[in-house]
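Reading is simple: each integer encodes one residue's backbone shape. An example follows:

___
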Amino acid sequence: MAIDFTPLFRPIFIKRSRSAHKAADRVAETQRKVLHSLLTRAQFTEFGKANEFKSILKSAEPEKEYACRVAMRQYEDIREDVMRMVKGERDVLWPGVCRDFAQSSGTSGGRSKYVPITPASLKGNHYRGAACSVAFYLDLVPDSRMFAGKGFILGGSFASQLKVADPRVKVGDLSATLINRINPLANMVRVPDKATALMPDWETKLPALVKASAYADITNISGVPSWFLTVIKRVMEERGADSLREVWPNLEVFFHGGISFEPYRDEYVKLTDSEKMHFLETYNASEGFFAAQDDFASHSMLLIVDADIYYEFLPLGSDVALPITDVEPGKVYELVISSSNGLWRYRLGDTVVIDSVNPVKIRVAGRTRSFINAFGEELMEDNAEKAMAEAARLTGAAILNYTAAPVFADDKRRGRHQWLVEWETPPVDLAHFGEILDLELRKLNSDYDAKRAHTIFLDPPEIITARQGLFDKWLRHAGNHKLGGQRKVPRLSNTRQLMDTLLNLNS
């Protein structure tokens, strides 16, 4: 029988859980200290000098002074500075030289973003946040044996659209950097090995992942739900098993993030041991590790406020960001962050719903650019995820991936929403699935309901079945290296560009 190291590690993680919760209970004091630390360390950088960090630190109200002196920024505002960092310039946005960069989704101009991953942000945020998620889990499950076996961590690679001459500079998925820079001792409790984890070609990587994990004693898995489901199916095929319980009988937790888990929850519940299995959501982006679920009874995540990120919250439609002490429950805000990777008052592009303020708990509402408002319906990603999950549950369907876009009115038809869905298990009646989806959207969104009332302004949704592998093909298309990494298919688009591309591939 394998040695269970959980009792050895538990006290360390429980201490981290207590620390994170204590910080959350003292959010104003904690965030003030974080801002002071960030400004102090970066005051002699090019950015710190230009924005007078030294003067801000002397202010009686540094939070207000900081918001007054430093303008909010989006990626295009700092692209040139980041590219100078890629070329090796030091002390630009953060002290020293940065050699790791996470390639992330393109901006509105279509170009990829390259987010600095500094040593300070790795230690103070990304790894600290990951430790928080494990700590919360061990706090919730006193009889856990997760360190009696291996963790299966699914990551990306350093495949990149950016060509860098310096071999010391690594550009790729955030997960590749996290795996590459992790303490070597962690390799003792995880699969696959680093060489396999960082393989760039997913056609050869997938069989290697199956080989590394199919006969291992896996107790915990971490990754994006849609991609992990693909890997799990291949592992089950390798073992000739009908469920994951037969393959990994000691599997007890899935740390998931990147996309909403709701459309995939029923499938994972069906495949795993319901008496043992737990699911814990994390909010970890290229720009930082922001939050993790600390209560199985609620899908809200605790905002991690003591991990090198200073938070502000921008109300939708406003140009004035609020400090964390001024947020209101039930409201939707865009996240604005300042962090030890050199992002200063950076508009993340993600929106969150505030579920509670003491402590601050959030749910991801979606991207600021991921919505449909072609007819005044203001359909947000959060609405879509919940409605799709419920329609799948009620029809016995299982969804692999989907996206939606408007179809604009012409002289024959009113406008409508078009949903392109790749099924794991298709519904028996596609039209019935569409009816339920429509009904759930109307329940969740009053603007959508008003536009659908009596079918005066908006026709019922149109559901189109995508052929198997369509979204993977798109992810490979046009140099898109995201297949299997931090894979994110845009759920909602307000234009036809993505949908038309996918429909052409589908035909």
About this structure: The chain has 18 helices and 20 strands. Confidence is low (pLDDT under 50) at residues 106-110, 478-486.
